[in-house]
Amino acid sequence: MNRELTTSLSKDNANVSKPYSQVHLKRAGKKLLLILPDNEPKEANKDWIELLQDLKYCLNHHKGTWTPATPVHLLVENRLLDSRQFHNIGEALEAAELKLTRVFTSRRQTAITAATAGYSVEQETPQRELFTTEIAKPGNLTEPLYVKTTVRSGVVIRHPGSIIIRGDVNPGGEVIADGDIIIWGHLRGVAHAGAKGNSESCIMALRMQPTQLRIGEAVARPPGEIQEVFEAEVAYLTTEGIRLKSALNFNKTHTFTAKDQGWTQKNSSNLA
After folding, report:
1. Is residue 113 within 8 Å of 119, Cβ to Cβ?
2. How many other C-beta atoms are found inside a 10 Å radius of the C-beta of residue 91?
3. What is the pLDDT along the chain (272 residues), one digit of tens a residue?
4. What is the pLDDT of residue 10?
5. Span of the secretion signal (predicted)?
6. What phi and psi values does residue 152 have, to the nearest 5 degrees?
7. Which CATH number is correct for 1-132, 3.30.70.260, 2.40.50.140, 3.40.50.10800, 3.40.50.740?
8. Which sequence spans correspond to the domains of the chain?
9. What is the pLDDT of residue 14?
10. Cβ(161)–Cβ(142) under 8 Å?
11. What pTM value is reported for the model?
């Protein structure tokens, strides 16, 4: 059961001018959840200064109730955060011997900023993840998330739509999308397209050398010796599992069959 770290002041702290009403910490297993208000401030700079003061007071008040290097998941929902603010939060947590590892947000720009800063990102809230079980159909997906960064080891980017990465995905990095995944670079980590069960989703990379590929519920791992292929490839789901194909003219040569929940090659007579 999650236990919220109380925001009320003890008798010993009765002389403190004001409690940290904007910031909440919750213990969730071996990690902490840091929750910021998602309202849009009228005076952004003044609001941020006050919020940062609240955060530092909150961390100082509860210091010693966690072990050093405890991971922190930041929940900001609809609040817009820039790179400076992420830096401020990271510094405050580091001073309290905590480590920011993952960011949950519903704002596209906040997700991009967090991913560029090297944090794992989920562009949705944990509550939505817990209660959403239906298959994400292409028409129900949110707009694609476009990120210009290298996804390094330990970083996870998750989005309830398609994901476009202009950069590499290193071993230990992970990209999870409810739609398609396009890597404008070298894929050497884990890619999971159609994460909510959409079998039509595909994974494309300029260079495909993943540690694991997943589409819907299907999983594929590369053979022991990976063949060097110097062209863009697409991973797609067939009735026999996940297959790789040259990305050139893929949509012209293949079609998705809803009945089989997989891609098949078009007859030569149907090719344009």
Report:
1. no
2. 13
3. 443 333 332 333 333 334 446 788 899 999 999 999 876 666 666 688 989 999 999 898 888 889 999 999 999 988 899 999 999 999 999 999 999 999 999 999 999 999 999 999 998 644 444 334 455 555 567 889 999 999 999 999 999 999 999 999 999 999 999 999 999 999 999 999 999 999 999 999 999 999 999 999 999 987 766 677 789 999 999 999 999 999 999 989 999 998 888 999 987 655 55
4. 33
5. none
6. -90, 170
7. 3.30.70.260
8. 1-132, 135-272
9. 33
10. yes
11. 0.76
Q: In whole angstroms, give the CA distance from residue 41 to residue 220.
A: 46
CB contact at 8 A, 230 and 214: no
Class in CATH terms, 135-272:
mainly beta
| 3-state secondary structure labels for all residues of the chain | CCEECCCCCCHHHCCCCCCCCCCEEEEECCEEEEECCCCCCCCHHHHHHHHHHHHHHHHHHCCCCCCCCEEEEEEEECCCCCHHHHHHHHHHHHHCCEEEEEEEECCHHHHHHHHHCCCEEECCCHHHHHHCCCCCCHHHCEEEEEECCCECCCCEEEECEEEEECCCECCCCEEEECCCEEEEEEECCEEEECCCCCCCCCEEEEEECCCEEEECCEEECCCCCCCCCCCCEEEEEECCEEEEEECCCHHHHEEEECCCCEEEECCHHHCC
Residue labelled with tokens 């208000």: 37
